[in-house]
Specification:
Endonuclease, Chain A, single chain, about 10% strand, about 45% helix, 4 helices, binds zinc ion
């Protein structure tokens, strides 16, 4: 009887599976989306009509939210924005490109009449602060 309860995954497979679930749940984009949803906002994901394909878009309000990983987008002054010790030149160039693209997207979005909020990965850890910022940025849930 006991044998029937044993699942068919090897420990390695199970660990990979659990890792995927954990990662998906804690991804900054997911934290923001879940919070917006819980607050009652309706939104579009990766809206192609706005510059930079923002993570979350509110076309009716003409507002967009970019959620940036602190490492990949090199959050200024953040302790998570570390520089790898190997292949440093490669990373410096990569980060520079990412930041240029971020800046370009921001400028183009604002020029196109979009209001932009950037949420950094480290800011998604403090739930109350994040929630307050989202509500302040978006206003009441019932809006055009
Ligand atoms: Zn950060």
């Amino acid at each position: 009887m006991r044998q029937a309860l044993v699942d068919h995954l090897t420990p390695a497979q199970r660990s990979a599976h659990m890792g995927r679930i954990r990662r998906a749940d804690t991804k900054p984009e997911w934290i923001v989306r879940r919070m917006l949803h819980a607050l009652g906002y309706r939104f579009r994901l990766q809206w192609a009509a706005a510059p930079g394909r923002p993570d979350v878009a509110f076309p009716g309000r003409r507002k967009i939210i970019f959620v940036h990983g602190c490492f990949w987008h090199q959050h200024a002054g953040c302790r998570n924005a570390t520089m790898p010790r190997t292949r440093t030149e490669f990373w410096q160039e990569k980060f520079a490109r990412n930041r240029e693209r971020d800046m370009r997207d921001l400028v183009r979005a604002e020029a196109g009449g979009w209001t932009v909020l950037v949420v950094w990965e480290c800011e998604t850890k403090a739930k109350a602060g994040l929630e307050a910022r989202l509500v302040e940025f978006l206003g009441p849930t019932i809006a055009p």
